[in-house]
Amino acid sequence: MSQPLRHRFDRRTVLLQLGALAGTGLLLPRAVRAQGDRPVRFILPVATASGVDTIVRAAQGAFGKALGHPVVVENQPGAGGIVGTSTLVKSAPDGYTLGVVSNNHVIYPSVYKSVPFDPINDITPIAIVGTTPIIVLVNPRVPANNAKELVALLKTKPGQLNYASSGNGTILHLAAEMFVDEAGGKANHIPYKGVGPMVTDLIGGQVDFGTAALPSVQAYLKSGALRAIGVGSAARVSAAPEIPTLVEQGMPNYLVEGWFAVIAPKGLPAAEVKRLHDVVVSAFAAPEVREAMAKQGNSINVSTPEFAGEFFRSEMAKYARLVKKAGLALQ
């Protein structure tokens, strides 16, 4: 082989090898590689073991694949969701910090005298993702197996039963208070700092009854550690068809369910909103996530960002009326 030909061959080989290395990202500038490795934070303004936490962790892997970045889930509970959402709204609108919120996001403005941000104008809605069933449940030692028996107990022992919630101004607080109101009875509210400690005391018998999202208590209902009284949806849930609705048990006005949504800080560029909406659609369409959502009893129907914004406004007005009707005092 002539020297010039060997020189051309060696040079071509080197160039091909460099191209291959570039394809792996090893020759990219350090700043570019860092962006590719940068995790996307999902801030949950709820405690671990809550319904939203259970849902997001089931979809965490699919979110990572759709984003092309590692996903870190951060639980920041407190004040009905105010603590975690405060962190979110102060974050940069760069697509690397997202939040997943529930009904609580539009309830606490009617329950707390002061909220350090505007739940509508200080966020960028990405999507309402779906709904989750809310269950009225009791400690097994409570002598009530259905709504009729729990209503009778509330009436014959006014003010003697305690009900638990995941915190003041949460959907679980309001859902339990709505049940007591529909029953025409009285009970004492015991707020907890999250679903985990609430469920622990429900199982232990420190409190008598409460409400919870189905995904957070499914295992305890199956084991008998807790007893379901009824579900707040209009129809029975396929994941737990043995639990009757409160409607079919003679409480036609008791209709309440949880919903969950993905949001970002205010000022997220329109192109990023579209990209992240596509990510949400992709993650919840993944077969393993669809299976997990079905087992948990969740209904997935990812909305547009525009619908999400309108939904937040209408839900805030609805819960303001319900809070007033239930007579919940401002905190």
How would you summarize the topology of this molecule?
Elements: H1 3-24, H2 30-37, E1 40-44, H3 51-67, E2 71-75, H4 82-89, E3 97-102, H5 104-111, E4 123-138, H6 147-156, E5 162-165, H7 171-183, E6 188-191, H8 195-204, E7 209-213, H9 214-223, E8 227-231, E9 257-265, H10 270-285, H11 287-296, E10 299-300, H12 305-326
Parallel strand pairs: 1-2, 1-3, 5-6, 5-7
Antiparallel strand pairs: 3-9, 4-7, 4-8, 4-9, 4-10
Helix pairs in contact: 3-10, 3-11, 5-12
Alpha carbon gyration radius: 24 Å
CA-CA gap between termini: 87 Å
CATH class of the largest domain: Alpha Beta
Beta-strand content: 15-25%
CATH superfamily of the largest domain: Bordetella uptake gene, domain 1
Provide an overview of this structure.
The protein is globular. The protein has two domains: 37-132 and 259-326, 3-Layer(aba) Sandwich (D-Maltodextrin-Binding Protein, domain 2), CATH 3.40.190; 133-231, 3-Layer(aba) Sandwich (D-Maltodextrin-Binding Protein, domain 2), CATH 3.40.190. It has 331 residues and is an alpha/beta fold. Strands 1, 2, 3, 4, 5, 6, 7, 8, 9 and 10 form a ten-stranded mixed sheet that branches. The N and C termini lie far apart (87 Å). Helix content is 47%, strand content 18%.
